[in-house]
Amino acid sequence: MSTSDARRGTAGRGKRSGRDNPGYRCAECGWQAAKWVGRCGECQAWGTVMEATSAAPAGITKARPVGVKAQPIGEVAADNAQTWSTGVEELDRVLGGGIVSGAVVLLAGEPGVGKSTLLLDVASKAAQNSRTVLYVTGEESASQVRVRAERIGALRPRLLLTAETDLSTVLGHVEDVQPDLLVVDSVQTIASDAIESSAGSVSQVREVAASLIRVAKERGMATLLVGHVTKDGSIAGPRVLEHLVDVVCQFEGDRHSRLRLVRAVKNRYGPTDEVGCFDLSEVGIVGLTDPSGLFVSQHAQPVPGTCVTVTLEGRRPLVSEVQALVAPTAANNPRRATSGLDNSRVSMILAVLERRAGARLSGNDVYVSTVGGNRLAEPSCDLAVALAVAGAAIDRPLAPGTIAVGEVGLAGEVRPVAGVGRRLAEAARLGFTSAFVPAGTKDAAPAPEGMAVYEVPDVLTALSRATFPLVGGNAGGGRSERG
User: Fold this and answer.
1) Is the N or C terminus of the chain more exposed, i.e. has fewer CB atoms within 10 Å?
2) Per the annotation, does 112 bind a ligand?
């Protein structure tokens, strides 16, 4: 035997077979790899590839005698699935009327957005309604939480507080207190001794969440979990965490604004198209039943470059204002800046104005923004953006009390949008007297009393009825056979 053959034989004896080699698996999507990599090759997530445990086949699983026999679904008791109010009306709206006994709710959001303040207020309202509440904090000390509770008026005798990061100790507190509501802030800070990895890892988050969910279901105890988010805004930890819990809520808000929004991403007990609005201040967090006034500015005289639209946040109509500024520039590449709007969609609307309405915007800087830090992602605000930019281009304001609703297509047409009746009713309630809507809207949604509704089939018609003569006017030049 040659030396090379001997080396190959020794190397072969040192290698593990495919059955013995456990390999590596992504905790997010289950993708497998022969060696460790930092980034999953399937879902492209970082730090989720873990070594898979190898286990010998255990054989065929045999049937086990059942303890409780299956029964007709009509005979199953529904007492344990009753909904009770959290005391916070806006949160009840998102949850579908309240929280269900035994339900596990995951509330995720960026640091400092107000998650702990909201849940402390919910815990206080529940304790005020003669419910025993256990608040577990793993990120702050008990004294820090006590100071916040005193500031927002959340000191209640039935609200019990503990600062723990060990899962076994937390479960011991649950056994001792037997609460009706458990609040854990946050699930990433709790660790189990049975798992060797550090707190916040994929395996730890999965074990902690599974244990808390099991206890919640056994005891019929409502549980609120706080979850961290990653840089891209998604919930940190394994994706299976979102599948295990009953409700997943996203807490959104700009740090420079007092407005906070809570949306239900997943809800087993209610709708997922509702949104809760809150006002975060130094004295706590307060629900806003009518937040429309926050997104509209007040002007003594009509201002060019402004237009009001009505969006639907879930089933709630919100009146929002779009502002635009068109300024001449000597730069070869004019600026296109947006705030609160999708930049690519605004660029498309500008292109439609230039090509279909003859607006000359190529030599101007264009700035488009919303009021109050609100973000408009719905296509129904396209027509309002077009009218605001057109008014800023010729320095002419819209008539007072005017709103615009409609999606703008690349051919310049104004497409119908859903819920026009609710949008017009909300605008009429706030005192608006005229509206530009897509063609065919009057048949589906009659005009509210005291409001003049104008149907516009395309952008050019909308600009003409708004007295914005871009075609052949100061800001444009082109064909005017439809003017």
Assistant:
1) N
2) yes
